[in-house]
């Protein structure tokens, strides 16, 4: 697959989820656009560390589809630069991409960074126009632990545990695209124990405090408990040789998500490890191509949540029913 295939599909996903016709016309993945890269203050953590947003804005009239990038790093490291090669490529196809810093586990445990992401969605919806973006159909892009955050936020919009930092608007999103997401943090911790990976073991214990929150904040277990959830079109890209997040665990989550009524495309990448998209090259190009194709196909079918026999409550939650 080529990079252009990814860009075409990712843009189509943004265009088909909620954008007006003017935004449809603005997106042309076959034309490489120049981009403007800038940084703006985003918010300040409880420990006083400034968080920044890195904005990749296509040069043009717009309005452009808008994508929020949530970085990985096992909840304990990395920042807005983590996914730069992919962010630049997507932006050059005509998508406003905004990558943010988030609170690290050493600063505050779960759910502090999910609260950052919730705030970021509302913040970006209010400011996208400044960079010629249209946030009506905003999507999430999450890698590894960023994928975990993206799944939680999409499944639990307006959740009282996450929607705690004041800002107008709501944190609902139109779709989620992930690379090696930690869909089940408990089994990921078990794998780290098995591999004697001290860094990942410590990362989980630092982030999930108290330890029981590793179950409360598990996308896999949320579905298994049949809790209220909103299921947006979801894409999972997974490396075949990933010994950090096992393919079998991703396949299980994809099956569970579909069984609950969600649209989920799962793509396995032969010969790829956990962070194969971190650097520019054929692997990241192929990942991008697969990501966009799958996401757009799901969005075309339906841009709202996918739940069998949906029942919407007064606060906007959809109850899983069989």
Keywords:
322 residues; alpha/beta; Rossmann fold; eight-stranded mixed sheet; two-stranded antiparallel ribbon; 10 strands; globular; disordered N terminus; disordered C terminus
Short description:
The chain has 322 residues and is an alpha/beta fold. It contains eleven helices and ten strands.
Describe the structure.
The chain starts with a helix and ends with a strand. Helix content is 37%, strand content 20%. The longest helix is centred in the last third of the chain and has 20 residues. The N terminus and C terminus are likely disordered. Strand 7, helix 10 and strand 8 form a beta-alpha-beta unit. The chain has 322 residues and is α/β, with parallel strands linked by helices. The protein has a single domain, classed as Alpha/Beta hydrolase fold, catalytic domain (Rossmann fold). The strands form 2 sheets. The chain has an 8-stranded mixed β-sheet, with helices on both faces. It has a two-stranded antiparallel ribbon with strand order 9-10. The chain is built from 11 helices and 10 strands. Helix 1 packs parallel to helix 11 and helix 4 crosses helix 5.
Hey, roughly how much beta strand do the residues contain?
Answer: 15-25%
Structural class: alpha/beta
Level-2 CATH architecture: 3-Layer(aba) Sandwich
Number of strands: 10
What is the terminal-to-terminal distance? Answer: 38 Å
Rounded to the nearest angstrom, the radius of gyration is: 18 Å
Give the mean pLDDT: 83
CATH superfamily: Alpha/Beta hydrolase fold, catalytic domain
Q: What's the overall geometry?
A: globular
Helix content estimate: 25-40%
CATH top level label: Alpha Beta
């Amino acid at each position: 697959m080529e990079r252009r295939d990814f860009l075409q599909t990712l843009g189509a996903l943004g265009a088909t989820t909620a954008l007006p016709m003017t935004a449809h016309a603005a997106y042309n993945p076959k034309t490489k656009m120049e981009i403007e890269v800038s940084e703006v203050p985003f918010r300040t953590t409880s420990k006083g560390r400034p968080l920044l947003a890195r904005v990749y804005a296509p040069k043009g009239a717009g309005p452009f589809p808008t994508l929020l990038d949530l970085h990985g790093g096992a909840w304990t490291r990395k920042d807005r630069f983590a996914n730069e090669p992919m962010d630049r490529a997507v932006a050059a196809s005509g998508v406003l991409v905004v990558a943010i810093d988030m609170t690290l586990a050493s600063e505050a445990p779960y759910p502090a960074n999910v609260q950052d992401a919730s705030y970021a969605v509302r913040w970006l919806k209010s400011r996208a126009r400044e960079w010629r973006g249209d946030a009506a159909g905003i999507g999430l892009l999450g890698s590894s632990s960023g994928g975990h955050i993206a799944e939680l936020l999409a499944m639990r919009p307006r959740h009282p545990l996450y929607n705690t930092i004041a800002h107008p608007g709501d944190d609902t999103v139109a779709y989620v695209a992930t690379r090696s997401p930690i869909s089940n943090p408990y089994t990921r911790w078990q794998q780290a124990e098995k591999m004697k990976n001290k860094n990942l073991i410590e990362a989980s214990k630092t982030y999930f405090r108290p330890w029981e929150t590793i179950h409360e904040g598990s996308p896999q277990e949320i579905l298994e408990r049949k809790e209220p959830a909103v299921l947006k079109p979801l894409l999972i890209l997974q490396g075949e040789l990933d010994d950090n997040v096992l393919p079998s665990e991703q396949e299980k989550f994809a099956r569970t998500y579909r069984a609950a009524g969600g649209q989920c495309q799962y793509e396995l990448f032969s010969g790829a490890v956990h962070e194969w998209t971190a650097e520019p090259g054929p692997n990241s190009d192929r990942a991008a191509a697969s990501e966009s194709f799958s996401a757009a196909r799901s969005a075309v079918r339906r841009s709202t949540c996918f739940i069998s026999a949906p029942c919407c409550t007064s606060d906007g939650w959809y109850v899983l029913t069989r």
